[in-house]
Amino acid sequence: MLAFALVYRPPTSDGQTAIFLPGLLLIMTGLILAGPWLTMIGARVMARRASRPATLIAARRLADNPKAGFRAISGIMLALFVTSVAVGVITTIVANRGPAPIGSTGAGTMSTVFTENPPSVPDTVLTDLRAIPGVRSATVVRENPVRGTDGWVVACTDLPAAYGRCADGAMVAEVPMSLMPFEQPASSTRVWPAASVTVGELQRLPVASIVVGTDASVAALERSRTVLEVAYPTEFWVAPNVPGDWESDFANTLRGWKQLANVIIVASLALAGCSLAVSVVGGLSERKRPFSLLRLSGAQVRVLRRVVALESSVPMLAVSVVAIGMGLLAAQLFLKAQMDYTLTAPGVEFFVIVIVGLVACLGIIASTLPLLERITGPETARSE
């Protein structure tokens, strides 16, 4: 899914895609290099706000060797960064290129484009369309002989209010063929510019499309489609369609990749958590004598467990926030430069999955803590 986001080129691409992958790698390298510094900053914040011995010991340990503290959680950071970029890009593309939202005016708009100008649009066709339950409007859009903002025109008296209104004093408006700008929703507040065509000239212009506004019900859309196909069986360039008909398969594919990205988040965090557990166990083995001395000096086992938990969990949570933020920022830069889109924030399910994954990592860390009591004791503290 990330590969698609990196290599996809819109028609106006000028090569930004080719430089995005090196930029992404540069950001990842920067995160790796800045990781120890972030760990040290977190340790200093912990030390300043420490109110218990465990917090102070953990902060001192991280500040003494921030590279080692970050090394254990670097995998988690990279996994969250890469998947955040992928989910951010996919979510935004689906929001902008997918079918119109359910219940919106766009979802209930059906239009057809003629490959050959029909001799006329009989009143019976419009009457049959308007008689269908759920149909709110049926509008004939004609070609504009003077190409301006849009290459099509419609009489202001025929323009449905759901698609906007004409400029003050206008009798004929310049509009898109489907009464909606490309990849933009319908809006009742949109103001269409006046056309230089008069009402009398309008009726003699070739018909470009017929736009049917419905309540978005399946029955209204399909019955409207049937009326149009029966009336004009051979003249269609594009058969009657609803915005998003062609994008549905594409959007569904992207949603599948998004689900795959969510699975990868969980799997990556689980693997990274196991790696972190190995690092924690290794650290306990290396420091079993200092911990044993602390126990002999009166430190309780729960205090030592809290030290180990803070050493692992605080850097992990801190770099997770930074990784997700940088991933969404990278996605925004790519989308703005390449597609002129503004990032659509991932849904709640993304953050729920991340939280569940991080909680699983914390659970894996907690599973190593019982080892602390077994490997620390008076016999370990003896000097040979």
Query: How many domains, as an integer?
Result: 2
**Helical segment tally?**
14
| Biggest pleated-sheet summary | 6 strands, antiparallel
As a percent range, the share of strand residues is: 5-15%
Structural shape:
elongated
Q: Order of strands across the widest beta sheet?
A: 5-3-2-7-1-8
The termini sit apart by: 58 Å
State the helical fraction: 55-70%
| Average predicted local confidence, pLDDT | 78
Low-confidence stretches: 1-17
H/E element sequence: HHHHHEHEEEEEHEHEHHHHHH
Structural class: alpha+beta
Number of strands: 8
Radius of gyration over alpha carbons?
Answer: 31 Å
Please summarize what this structure is.
By secondary structure, the protein is of the alpha+beta class. The protein has 14 helices and eight strands.
Could you characterize what this model shows?
It is elongated and about 105 Å long. By secondary structure, it is of the alpha+beta class. It has a 6-stranded antiparallel sheet with strand order 5-3-2-7-1-8. Strands 4-6 form a two-stranded parallel ribbon. Helix 2 packs across helix 5. The chain folds into 2 domains: 2-98 and 251-381, no CATH class; 106-241, no CATH class. The protein contains 14 helices and 8 strands. Mean pLDDT is 78; it is low at 1-17.
Sum up the structure in keywords.
single chain; six-stranded antiparallel sheet; disordered N terminus; 14 helices; 2 domains; 8 strands
